[in-house]
Amino acid sequence: MISKNELRKEYKLKRASLDENFRKLASEKICMSVLSQGCVKNAKSVMCYNAINTEVSLDLLMAKMQDNKTLLLPVTDISTQTMHASKLCALDETELGSYGISEPQVKDVFNPSEIDVVIVPALVYNRSGFRIGYGKGYYDKFFSSCKNAIKIGAAFSCQISDEHFEEDFDISVDIIVTENEIIYCTDNN
User: Fold this and answer.
1) What average pLDDT is seen over the chain?
2) Of the candidates 168, 69, 16, the residue with the CA atom closest to the CA atom of residue 8
3) 3-class secondary-structure state, position 115
4) Residue 57's CB: how many other CB atoms inside 10 A?
5) Band (135; pLDDT cuts 50, 70, 90)
6) How many whole angstroms separate alpha carbon 65 and alpha carbon 46?
7) Residue of 12 and 100 predicted with greater confidence
8) Alpha carbon distances (Å) from 30 to 35, 77, 85, 111, 160
């Protein structure tokens, strides 16, 4: 079995090799597909993320949801290696936080048990919904506090792997949305 670190490097390069225009158009398509999901339509609160580097951009998704959903963004605490959700009052009310990722300026902790949907970034997903991120485990730790939330992975199709790299402590997402398909992970477990 290939190691997570090797997969992390391989898929980071694959994602980085995508043309900027392709990433923009594919991100928009992914956002529209996420919006079409019943769990998102019915959600009151949705936790998104602000993309870094070459991640799928959720800008369109957040713009379309800002008036009728409680939008949340992750806030990370490097000292405890934990993450919590904080309400985003306006799309332009962010500041650079840990790891150079935009976070809400006001960092009030939102009750994780009240989050309906979490949109999750990754470097690679497998079809069972397991993910490899940057290796700090922030999302896996966070998922344990929002057990009722539907977890949706946002990824480009080149980020889907047939490898089985999950470990006992890993938590899978429920759905993966790429520009080409929607994968319902519960069907693959």
Assistant:
1) 92
2) 16
3) coil
4) 19
5) confident
6) 9
7) 12
8) 9, 29, 22, 27, 14
Structural tokens at position 186: 């519960």
The answer to whether 175 touches 155, Cβ cutoff 8 Å, is no
What is the tens place of the pLDDT at every residue in 73-128? 999 988 888 999 999 988 888 888 888 889 999 888 999 999 999 999 999 999 99
Residue 125 CA to residue 122 CA, distance in Å, equals 7
Query: For 169, what's the count of Cα atoms within 13 Å in the CB-facing half-sphere?
Result: 9
CA distance 77 to 154: 23
> CB within 8 A of 76, min separation 6: which ones?
82, 83, 97, 98, 99, 101, 103, 138
Q: pTM value?
A: 0.94
Q: Are 156 and 123 in contact (CB under 8 A)?
A: no
Those residues with Cβ within 8 angstroms of residue 121's Cβ, 6 or more apart along the chain or in another chain:
49, 51, 55, 56, 133, 153, 154, 155
Written as one letter, the residue type at 73 is L
CA–CA gap between residue 133 and residue 106 (Å, rounded): 26
**183: enclosing H helix or E strand:** strand 182-184
